[in-house]
Automatic annotation (TrEMBL):
<feature type="domain" description="L,D-TPase catalytic">
    <location>
        <begin position="76"/>
        <end position="197"/>
    </location>
</feature>
<dbReference type="InterPro" id="IPR005490">
    <property type="entry name" value="LD_TPept_cat_dom"/>
</dbReference>
<keyword id="KW-0328">Glycosyltransferase</keyword>
<keyword id="KW-0378">Hydrolase</keyword>
<feature type="active site" description="Nucleophile">
    <location>
        <position position="173"/>
    </location>
</feature>
<keyword id="KW-0961">Cell wall biogenesis/degradation</keyword>
<protein>
    <submittedName>
        <fullName>L,D-transpeptidase</fullName>
    </submittedName>
</protein>
<comment type="pathway">
    <text>Cell wall biogenesis; peptidoglycan biosynthesis.</text>
</comment>
<feature type="compositionally biased region" description="Basic and acidic residues">
    <location>
        <begin position="359"/>
        <end position="390"/>
    </location>
</feature>
<feature type="compositionally biased region" description="Low complexity">
    <location>
        <begin position="39"/>
        <end position="61"/>
    </location>
</feature>
<dbReference type="InterPro" id="IPR050979">
    <property type="entry name" value="LD-transpeptidase"/>
</dbReference>
<feature type="signal peptide">
    <location>
        <begin position="1"/>
        <end position="24"/>
    </location>
</feature>
<dbReference type="GO" id="GO:0005576">
    <property type="term" value="C:extracellular region"/>
</dbReference>
<keyword id="KW-0732">Signal</keyword>
<feature type="compositionally biased region" description="Basic and acidic residues">
    <location>
        <begin position="63"/>
        <end position="74"/>
    </location>
</feature>
<dbReference type="GO" id="GO:0008360">
    <property type="term" value="P:regulation of cell shape"/>
</dbReference>
<dbReference type="GO" id="GO:0071972">
    <property type="term" value="F:peptidoglycan L,D-transpeptidase activity"/>
</dbReference>
Length: 410
C-alpha cells in the first residue's frame, strides 16, 4: 500500500505567475497512451483476407457514430476551481455534483493543470513530510478514509479536520468532507479526467430557465488580477454583458465575496424562424430586445432620439434604452416599432413573427446629425423626415416623421 505524504514540496508541478498556465511536462503527463500491436500481429494483419470483407451497412456506421457520441456525452470529468474552493463533477456538459473543498495554502498552493485519476485507495496511510512518521487509517489520519491520487503526492482525500473545508489549509492536496469524498470515490474511476483551474470570475446559466448569475472570488494566491472590462466580457459570453453597469462590477470586485449576483434570464431570439445574433434578456420582470437586430431582420428604418430616449421607426415610436452602446426596446413595443408579434415558446426561445401590414416607407440616407439605433458602428439608414409613411392600402399617413420627431422631443 502506498503511503501518502501530501508534501509541500511540489517540485516541477508548481505553477507560478498565472493560474492559467500549464507546463509542457504537465500536458505531456496526461496524453493518452497509444497501444502498439506486436510485430506478429502486424504481419498477420497485413495478410490478405480469405474472403473479401462485406461492406459495412451505412446504418451500422451511423449507429456506431451515435454510440461514440453518446459515450462522449456520458463521460465523467472532475473540474476544480481553487479560487472558488469547489469541486464539480460533470457528466458530459451537465454538472451532476458540487462539493466544497480545502485546497493548498498560499505558501503551498495546489497546482493547476490537466490531470487524471491515477489511483484510488480505501483507508490510506499518511506520512508526515517533516518527521517521516506514518499514521494508519482511523480517526487520527489526516487523509480520512479515501484517497484519489492526482499527481505525485497531490490528491483528493477526506479529512479529520472538517472545519478546514472551505478554507486554504492543505500542503497542496484537496480535502473534502468524508461523506462527499466517499460519494465521489464511488462515482469516478482510474483515468477520469481532472481539470484544476484558478478562476476568480464564474458565470453560470441555469439550463432550466436561462437565469444568469455571476460570482467574484478573492485572490488568495495573488494569481489573477481582474478588471471591470474583463468581467463585462465574461458576462458578454452569456449574452448579458450590457446588463450590468461599471459601478455594479466595481463594487463586486471590491467585495470579492464569492456570493452569487443575479443578472437576468437569457433567451435565444428568433424572427420569422431565423436566429438573431443577440438574445432577448429579461431583467427585473422586463423583457429587453435588441432594437437594431430586429430592425435589420424585418428591414425597417430605425432612428434614435437620445435626448428623449426614444426609438423611432417607419411604423411608430416607443421608449428605448441605451445599454453600453446597444439599444433595446421592450417586448410590449415590438409591434409598434417593427410590426412583430410573439413571445416565449415551449423550447424557451423568444420567437417573433410578422404581424399584419403596417405603414412603412423606403429607406433614405441617414442625416449626419442623427444618432442611429444599434452599436453606433453599424451602417444604418433613415427615412426623410418630411416624407409621410405609406399605409398598406397605398394611402398616405396623416403624420410625417418630422411631426413624430417634434412630438417626441417636446
Amino acid at each position: 500500500m502506498w503511503e501518502k505524504v501530501c508534501a509541500g514540496m511540489l517540485g516541477a508541478m508548481m505553477i507560478t505567475g498565472t493560474a492559467a498556465g500549464v507546463s509542457a511536462a504537465e500536458k505531456g503527463s496526461v496524453q493518452p497512451q497509444v497501444a502498439v500491436a506486436p510485430a506478429a500481429e502486424k504481419e498477420q494483419a497485413a495478410q490478405p483476407a480469405a474472403q473479401p470483407a462485406a461492406q459495412e451497412p451505412v446504418a451500422d456506421v451511423a449507429a456506431e457514430e451515435k454510440k461514440d457520441e453518446q459515450k462522449k456525452e456520458d463521460q465523467l470529468k472532475i473540474s476544480i476551481n481553487l479560487a472558488a474552493r469547489s469541486l464539480a463533477l460533470y457528466r458530459g456538459a451537465e454538472k451532476v455534483r458540487l462539493y466544497p473543498i480545502a485546497p493548498g495554502t498560499a505558501s503551498t498552493p495546489t497546482p493547476t493543470g490537466y490531470y487524471k485519476v491515477r489511483e484510488k485507495e480505501v483507508n490510506p496511510t499518511w506520512t508526515d513530510p517533516e518527521t517521516g512518521i506514518s499514521i494508519p487509517t482511523g480517526p487520527e489520519c489526516p487523509l480520512g478514509y479515501r484517497w484519489i491520487g492526482v499527481q505525485g503526492n497531490i490528491g483528493i482525500h477526506g479529512t479529520n479536520n472538517p472545519s478546514s473545508i472551505g478554507t486554504y489549509a492543505s500542503h497542496g492536496c484537496m480535502r473534502m468532507f468524508e461523506k462527499d469524498v466517499e460519494e465521489l470515490y464511488s462515482l469516478i474511476h482510474i483515468g477520469t479526467p481532472i481539470e484544476i483551474t484558478y478562476n476568480r470570475v464564474v458565470v453560470e446559466k441555469a439550463p432550466a430557465d436561462g437565469t444568469v448569475v455571476y460570482y467574484i472570488y478573492p485572490d488568495e494566491y495573488g494569481w489573477q488580477k481582474i478588471t471591470t472590462e474583463e468581467v463585462h466580457k465574461w458576462l458578454g459570453g452569456y449574452g448579458v454583458g450590457n446588463f450590468v453597469s461599471d459601478e455594479e462590477i466595481d463594487k463586486k470586485i471590491a467585495e470579492s465575496d464569492g456570493n452569487p449576483t443575479y443578472v437576468g434570464k437569457v433567451y435565444p431570439l428568433y424572427v420569422n424562424g431565423k436566429r438573431l445574433k443577440n438574445n432577448a434578456v429579461e431583467q427585473d420582470g422586463v423583457m429587453y430586445l435588441p432594437a437594431i437586430d430586429l430592425a435589420d431582420a424585418v428591414k425597417v428604418n430605425l432612428g434614435w432620439i437620445p435626448e428623449a430616449q426614444t426609438l423611432m421607426s417607419t411604423y411608430g415610436k416607443a421608449p428605448g434604452v441605451d445599454k453600453r452602446d446597444v439599444l433595446y426596446c421592450t417586448d410590449k413595443d415590438v409591434r409598434t416599432l417593427f410590426h412583430l408579434t410573439g413571445g416565449l415558446d415551449k423550447e424557451k426561445n423568444y420567437s417573433l413573427q410578422a404581424a399584419a401590414a403596417e405603414p412603412r416607407v423606403e429607406r433614405e440616407p441617414v442625416a449626419a446629425d442623427q444618432k442611429i439605433a444599434g452599436d453606433k458602428k453599424a451602417a444604418a439608414s433613415q427615412v426623410k423626415a418630411e416624407e409621410k409613411p405609406v399605409l398598406a392600402d397605398g394611402s398616405a399617413s396623416k403624420k410625417s416623421l418630422t411631426e413624430i420627431y417634434q412630438e417626441a422631443t417636446k
